[in-house]
Design a protein that fits this description.
Keywords: Signal. This protein has eleven helices and no strands. By secondary structure, it is an all-alpha fold. It binds 2-acetamido-2-deoxy-beta-D-glucopyranose (NAG).
Length: 213
C-alpha cells in the first residue's frame, strides 16, 4: 500500500543510512561466530518456519552492529542484554512477527508491542513520509514499515533501552550485575526465566562481560 513510494534509489539510501553508520569508532567487536554462540539456530535459515522472516547470523550482524552505533550502545553489558532479548524473542532471528499467539502488529526482533512500534517508527526521520502515507492506527501497516524495506527491526531493542528505560537501568546493565539484568527485564515488561537467562549467560560469555559491582 506504500510500495509506490519506494524507489530503488530511496530504498538503497534508507538501507545505507542504517547499514553504514556515519562516524566514530566501532562500538563492538561482535563477530558472526559469537552471534551463533548466542543464537545457535542462526547458523542457517534452512529449517526456518517462515523463511522470509529468518536472518542468519551473517545477515544479522551488520544491522545489529549498526544499531549499537546508532543508539550508542558501547558497553558489553548493554550489548549482551540486547542480544539476548533479540535472540530469545525472535527464536534466534527466525521471526520478525509475533506468531504465537499472533498478536497483530507485534514484531521486530525484540517482538515489541504495537504501541512501541509506532513510537519507534515515529522516532526514525527517514520513515516520516511512509508514516504519512498510512493510517498509524493500522498496527500491521506500521509493523510492515519497520520490517519490510529496511533492517530497522534489528534496531528496536537498542531504541527501547535508550528511549524507554531509566538511566539507572542502563547503568545497571553496564555494571554487568544480575540486579541490572533483572531491572532491564522489568523495563521491557517481562521477568526472568531460565530460558531468557540462558540467552543472557551465553551473551555474557561471548562478549566477556565482567561484573563491576
Ligand atoms: C555513549 O555512551 C558512553 C558510555 O555510556 C558515554 O560515555 C558517551 O557519552 C555516550 N556518547 C553519546 C554521544 O551519547
Amino acid at each position: 500500500m506504500f510500495s509506490h513510494l519506494v524507489t530503488p534509489a530511496l530504498a538503497l539510501l534508507m538501507a545505507t543510512a542504517l547499514a553504514l553508520p556515519t562516524a566514530g569508532t566501532p562500538v563492538s567487536t561482535l563477530d558472526e561466530s559469537q552471534l551463533v554462540s548466542i543464537a545457535p539456530k542462526s547458523s542457517s535459515c534452512a529449517n526456518a518456519p517462515f523463511p522470509s522472516e529468518c536472518r542468519t547470523a551473517a545477515q544479522a550482524l551488520g544491522p545489529i552492529l549498526a544499531s549499537f552505533t546508532t543508539y550508542n550502545i558501547t558497553t558489553p553489558g548493554e550489548q549482551a542484554a540486547l542480544l539476548s532479548t533479540m535472540a530469545f524473542e525472535s527464536d534466534d532471528f527466525q521471526y520478525q512477527i509475533n506468531h504465537f499467539p499472533g498478536t497483530p502488529g507485534q514484531g521486530t526482533r525484540n517482538m515489541q508491542s504495537p504501541a512501541y512500534n509506532l513510537k519507534y517508527a515515529m522516532s526514525i526521520p527517514a520513515l516520516a513520509p511512509y508514516l504519512d502515507a498510512i493510517q498509524t492506527s493500522n498496527v500491521v501497516a506500521v509493523l510492515d514499515l519497520l520490517i519490510k524495506y529496511t533492517n530497522y527491526d534489528f534496531g528496536s531493542a537498542a531504541w527501547f533501552l535508550t528511549s524507554q528505560c531509566d538511566q539507572n537501568v542502563i547503568s545497571g546493565l553496564q555494571s554487568g550485575s544480575a540486579a541490572g539484568f533483572s531491572a532491564y527485564l522489568a523495563c521491557i515488561g517481562t521477568t526472568e526465566t531460565s530460558d531468557r537467562d540462558a540467552y543472557y549467560q551465553r551473551a555474557v560469555t561471548a562478549l566477556g562481560v565482567t561484573t563491576s559491582q
